Amino acid sequence: MRLAELSARSGVPTATIKFYLREGLLPSGERISATQADYGGEHLHRLRLVRALIQVGRMPVATAREVLAAVDDTELDQHSRLGIAAWSLPGPAQGPNPGEEDDAATQTARQEIDGLLEHLGWEEFGPGTPAYETLLHAVATLIRLGYPCEAPHLRRLAQIAAQVAEADLDLLEGLPSEVEQVEASVALTVLYEPVLLSLRRLAQAEESARRFGG
Amino acid sequence: MRLAELSARSGVPTATIKFYLREGLLPSGERISATQADYGGEHLHRLRLVRALIQVGRMPVATAREVLAAVDDTELDQHSRLGIAAWSLPGPAQGPNPGEEDDAATQTARQEIDGLLEHLGWEEFGPGTPAYETLLHAVATLIRLGYPCEAPHLRRLAQIAAQVAEADLDLLEGLPSEVEQVEASVALTVLYEPVLLSLRRLAQAEESARRFGG
């Protein structure tokens, strides 16, 4: 197919596709004249992955390029591919304010989180990963504002989060190919975030009615 | 205490406190001279609530004024106060793009969500609430992009969300006063969102290691 058809079938504007080609995120098509190239199904798939990483996952272009290199590396197993994509995904919230990166609240939060992860035996994503750093600064904010955030409550939430992760991976394993799984792992992680948060708010209203309702 | 001390003890800048006073979000202090007023512990508490609504919950000033009126209404029970605060809280994600407010994907999503809420017997927050509308547009986005989002999966996530809500309300019930509970209900709903999302990402990495790891 030509560039115009690739754009129509993927829903990605031709200018954006040209940008991805220039940045090496999408392999060149097969050249059929001085000004035209032919694209195949593999371009359509890769385009969906690039869009998942950059538009849905807000991943910087340079990071997306590294993730794509890992996806294409036939020496890696599927766990490593999924891990590299997930590791590189920017955190779900903003980082700390200036001056709060390593204050007393952050140090207390770090101890609490390291204890939590050790208790759970979770050792895949440590300090430096966006997920760990987001957790660190969210817990530090709770401590700084004086809201409850004790270890037993965090453990309870972590065990609930493990159930979400099981549901997430079940959904992923239902997909037919490994490339689709990597693409979907990034897209589904991000796209299901507002689903989870709004279901929590609906459930809170029900639980509040049950406890405080007339 | 004077304005300067109220600012120091609350951590809210004096200019912001003056803005809250002008907007009627904070009651006036007791006037002790032509230019000075005296503030008490109730001002400190109310300031924390106003900050929870506006800064943490990103609630518009006019909406915050309505929530505060509900908190002060002695005719209302605690469930109604919590409900008005939670109902008014802006959704955890952006709304739909122009042209997507009522497209085919949104209509399918609406049917799916209404079926889900009926199945669960959840009837506190319906269409028009920020939580419902956020869920609607998140599910519509999944459908539009062709990602899996079937009813059994949503039901499974809703049941997990109900466990989070139980943990949330347990935390809230541990607080000593009703005003503190209303304040904390808004603040904790928002502040625990990045905690949940990052715990989910950490749990996904563990679950992926268990299923795909070597």
TrEMBL record, chains A, B:
Give the species: Streptomyces oryzae
UniProt domain HTH merR-type: residue ranges: 1-70
Region called Disordered, residue ranges: 87-107
**A Pfam entry, by short name:** MerR_1
Which protein, by its recorded name, is this?
A: MerR family transcriptional regulator
Residues folding into a coiled coil are: none
Keyword terms, alphabetized: DNA-binding
CDD domains linked to this entry: HTH_MerR-like_sg5
